[in-house]
C-alpha cells in the first residue's frame, strides 16, 4: 500500500528508529518526497550521527568513528550535492597517498597498483619484499588457475588461497580486509564484501587479468592498498553530514535521548511504538535504523523467528586509541596515510591511521593525529584491557614501528562494543530470507550496516532505498 495522503485519510506517520546516517537519509527522503507524511526519528543518544562522532579539542578534529568515505559508489556525490554539502567536501592530501604493512616488525610500502585483493602492476609487486620468491611465483600463476563455476558464496580466505595462495592472504589481503571489516577471513563472505573480484574471475577467468584490463580503461591513479584518491571527508569533520541532514529534516522531528522500548502491530496493520518516556504513538510504517540486535529484542514479542534471525547476525567489538603528538617526536617520516598489521605478525593492534596526514585541518601545525585500532573478530580479548592499558599498548606499538618517543599531548580511547556486523558466508541469502519474512508484518524496513554494506555510501543508499519502497507501496 503506497504511503500517500488523500482527502479521506490524515497524513501518514512513519517512525524511524535510530538517528545514524541510514535513518537520517531515510527520514530526509521521506520529508523531501512526501511533505505531508509525518516522520518521527527516535534515538537514545543526545546527538545525531550514530557511529559518526566528531570531537574538537585544542585544534585537533578527532573522529571516534569513520574519518572519511569512498566517493565512487553510485549516487554518493550526487546525494552530497543534493543536500548542499558539495563545497564542504575535502579530498585526501596529495602527498603521502600510500599505505604500509608490517613485515617482520618493519613498515613496508604496499606495492603500487595492489587493489585490495590482487596486483595490477607486476613490476612493483615483484620488487616488493612483502612476499617470498615462492609466494610471488604462486601469485603470478593466478591467471592460469581455473575459474570457479559454482555460483555459491565462499569465504575470503577460500577465494584468495584458491587463486593466489596462502602467503598473499596472510601478508596482504587479511590485514587490508581486516582494516575494513575487523573480520576473520575464513568467515567473511566474498559475495557481500568483495563481489567485484568474484565478478572479475567470472568474466575474465582471472582476477589479475581483469584488474589490468579495468585499469587500462579507467587510467587509474597510481595509489597502493586503499585507493586514496577516491576517498573524501568534510572540511569541518564527519559530523557535518548528520548535522546537515538533521537540519533539513527539521529538528522538531527528532526525539533524542529517547529510546524505543517496545513495538507492536495494531489490529489495522499499523505499529504502536512505546518510547522510554512512556509515550505511545501509532505509525503506519517503521524504518529500523538501529542495530540488528536492538531490533531483534524489540521484535521478540512480535515474531520470535524474525527476532532470532536478527540476533543471529554476528558482530565484532573493537577500540580506537587516538594519540596526538608533535611531529618531531617521530623518528620515522610520516610519509603515508597509515599502516595495517597482518595477524601472522602477532602484534596487539590491527592498524594505524595517520589522520592528520590523510586530511588537512585535522591537527595544529607541527602536530600529528594518529588513530590506532585494536580488537576485532580475531582478537576480541584485547578489549579486556582498561583504557589506560589500551593507550599504553598503542604508544608502545607506535614507538616500535614509528620511533615515537615521549608522551602524546592527547590520548583517549573509544570503544565500539558489538558494533561491526560480520558478513559471514551466506549473509546475502540470510538477509533476503529475513526481509521476506517481514511481509507478514505491517510495513517495516531494515536499514543500516548490518544488511547491505558497512560504508557511509552504503548506509545512505540503504536509507534512500527504504524510503523509496515505502513511498511506492
How much helicity do the residues have? 25-40%
- Indicate the structural class: alpha/beta
Number of domains: 3
Estimate the global geometry from the Cα principal axes: globular
CATH superfamily of the largest domain: FAD/NAD(P)-binding domain
**Residue share in β-strands:** 15-25%
Average pLDDT, all residues: 92
Q: Could you tell me the CATH topology label of the largest domain.
A: FAD/NAD(P)-binding domain
If strands are numbered along the chain, what order do they take across the biggest sheet? Answer: 8-7-16-17-18-15-19
CATH-derived architecture of the largest domain: 3-Layer(bba) Sandwich
Major sheet size, sense and barrel closure: 7 strands, mixed
Low-pLDDT segments, ≥5 res: 1-11, 220-225
Number of helices: 16
Total strand count, please? 20
Instruction: Tell me the name of the CATH class of the largest domain.
Output: Alpha Beta
Q: Roughly how many Å is the radius of gyration?
A: 23 Å
State the end-to-end CA separation: 4 Å
Amino acid at each position: 500500500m503506497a504511503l500517500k495522503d488523500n482527502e479521506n485519510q490524515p497524513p501518514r506517520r512513519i517512525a524511524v528508529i535510530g538517528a545514524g546516517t541510514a535513518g537520517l537519509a531515510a527520514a530526509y527522503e521521506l520529508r523531501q518526497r512526501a511533505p505531508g507524511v509525518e516522520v518521527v526519528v527516535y534515538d537514545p543518544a543526545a546527538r545525531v550521527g550514530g557511529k559518526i562522532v566528531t570531537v574538537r579539542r585544542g585544534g585537533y578534529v578527532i573522529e571516534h568513528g569513520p574519518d572519511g568515505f569512498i566517493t565512487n559508489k553510485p549516487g554518493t556525490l550526487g546525494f552530497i550535492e543534493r543536500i548542499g554539502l558539495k563545497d564542504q567536501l575535502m579530498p585526501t592530501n596529495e602527498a603521502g597517498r600510500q599505505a604500509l604493512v608490517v613485515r617482520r616488525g618493519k613498515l613496508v610500502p604496499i606495492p603500487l597498483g595492489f587493489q585490495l585483493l590482487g596486483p595490477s602492476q607486476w613490476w612493483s609487486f615483484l620488487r616488493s619484499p612483502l612476499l617470498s620468491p615462492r609466494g610471488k611465483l604462486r601469485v603470478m600463476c593466478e591467471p592460469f588457475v581455473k575459474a570457479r563455476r559454482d555460483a555459491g558464496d565462499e569465504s575470503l580466505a577460500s577465494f584468495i588461497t584458491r587463486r593466489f595462495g596462502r602467503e598473499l592472504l596472510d601478508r596482504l589481503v587479511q590485514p587490508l580486509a581486516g582494516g575494513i571489516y575487523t573480520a576473520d577471513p575464513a568467515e567473511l563472505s566474498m559475495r557481500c564484501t568483495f563481489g567485484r573480484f568474484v565478478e572479475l574471475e567470472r568474466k575474465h577467468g582471472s582476477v589479475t587479468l581483469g584488474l589490468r584490463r579495468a585499469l587500462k580503461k579507467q587510467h587509474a591513479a597510481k595509489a597502493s592498498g586503499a585507493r586514496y584518491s577516491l576517498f573524501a571527508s568534510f572540511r569541518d569533520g564527519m559530523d557535518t553530514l548528520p548535522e546537515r541532514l538533521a537540519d533539513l529534516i527539521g529538528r522538531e522531528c527528532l526525539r533524542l535521548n529517547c529510546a524505543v522500548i517496545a513495538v507492536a502491530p495494531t489490529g489495522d496493520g499499523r505499529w504502536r511504538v512505546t518510547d522510554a518516556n512512556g509515550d505511545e504513538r501509532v505509525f503506519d510504517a517503521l524504518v529500523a535504523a538501529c542495530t540488528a540486535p536492538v531490533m531483534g529484542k524489540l521484535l521478540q514479542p512480535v515474531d520470535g523467528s524474525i527476532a532470532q534471525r536478527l540476533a543471529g547476525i554476528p558482530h565484532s567489538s573493537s577500540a580506537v586509541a587516538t594519540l596526538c603528538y608533535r611531529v618531531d617526536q617521530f623518528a620515522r617520516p610520516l610519509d603515508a596515510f597509515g599502516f595495517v598489521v597482518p595477524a601472522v605478525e602477532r602484534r596487539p593492534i590491527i592498524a594505524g591511521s595517520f589522520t592528520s596526514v590523510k586530511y588537512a585541518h585535522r591537527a595544529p601545525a607541527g602536530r600529528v593525529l594518529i588513530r590506532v585500532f585494536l580488537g576485532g573478530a580475531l582478537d576480541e580479548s584485547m578489549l579486556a584491557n582498561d583504557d589506560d592499558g589500551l593507550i599504553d599498548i598503542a604508544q608502545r606499538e607506535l614507538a616500535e614501528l614509528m620511533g615515537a618517543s615521549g608522551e602524546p599531548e592527547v590520548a583517549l580511547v573509544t570503544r565500539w562494543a558489538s558494533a561491526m556486523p560480520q558478513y559471514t558466508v551466506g549473509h546475502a541469502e540470510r538477509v533476503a530470507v529475513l526481509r521476506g519474512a517481514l511481509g507478514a508484518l505491517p510495513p517495516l524496513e531494515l536499514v543500516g550496516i548490518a544488511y547491505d554494506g558497512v560504508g557511509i555510501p552504503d548506509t545512505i543508499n540503504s536509507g534512500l532505498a527504504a524510503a523509496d519502497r515505502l513511498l511506492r507501496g
